[in-house]
Amino acid sequence: MEVGFLGLGIMGKAMAMNLLKNGFKVTVWNRTLSKCNELVAHGASVGETPAEVVKKCKIIIAILSDPAASLSVVFDKDGVLEQICSGKGYIDMSTVDAETSCKISEAITSKGGNFLEAPVSGSKQPAETGQLVILAAGEKALYEEAIPAFNVLGKKSFFLGQVGNGAKMKLVVNMIMGSMMNAFSEGLVLAERSGLNPHSLLDVVDLGGIANPMFRGKGPAMLQDNYSPAFPLKHQQKDMRLALSLGDENSVSMPVAAAANEAFKAARSMGLGDLDFSAVIETVKVLKPSS
């Protein structure tokens, strides 16, 4: 199967590489074309524009940074819409709001193409190891056609029905994750400031009912002030913002998520946006104990 791949950030690069390693022919594109070089060394072809990739491939996957980037790749000059047509499928695996997904879906289908949204749960390491969770919605036939690729990219794929449901599910998951990370950050700082060993806290938490892979994976690095980006903080804050908007649309009170969003915004104002989202702990550390 030949697959087009648009967007080679932290996630896209790892995902495209997995497809190559598993025998897929892959044509890649990125705004900064030099980011394609490593994939070319592993056998990928390069498209100069999104339209060129669509012209060449039957199935095109995109994973981009935010709604604006997703819309730009589809609607701008030399974009996806210039070459999408009957018999081709476009799969947007970016994390965007349902409104953006629906707008892209309408444009793709108006040209005769098939559309699937398929945002993923997971960050850099699951992307590298093919352990993502894929949250798909849209054209069921395209979902079935993409299963061989999804089986390489993820450990589990869900088909959630109509376009928009995948986007909503991803935003709910990331809203929970961001809220948890803020509580975890406060707990780590509170333990240390109150005279406890925060490493002991990690051990205690990991043996109890709130044990989870995120705390287990992020905790030791956070205690070493290591925020190497697996999921950039600026993207987590974007997802909190979109989740809160979804809450507004559905009249759901979300004070915990709102407070977490403010913490991520504060972290961005401190220049931490490109670091891992666990760097939000620095907003807690800023409040020094009174002498």
List keywords for this structure.
13 helices, 291 residues, nine-stranded mixed beta sheet, alpha/beta, globular
Number of helices: 13
In one word, what is the shape?
A: globular
In this structure, how is the largest beta sheet organized?
A: 9 strands, mixed
Oligomer: single chain
SSE string, helix = H, strand = E?
A: EHEHEHEHEHEEHEHEHHHHHH
Which percent bin holds the helix content? 40-55%
First and last CA, distance: 65 Å
What is the average per-residue confidence, as pLDDT, rounded to a whole number?
A: 97
Note the beta-strand portion: 5-15%
As residue ranges, the low-confidence spans are: none
User: Care to count the β-strands?
Assistant: 9
* SS-derived structural category: alpha/beta
Radius of gyration in whole Å, from Cα? 20 Å
Note down, in words, how this protein is organized.
- This protein is an alpha/beta fold and 291 residues long.
- It has 13 helices and nine strands.
- Helix 8 crosses helix 11.
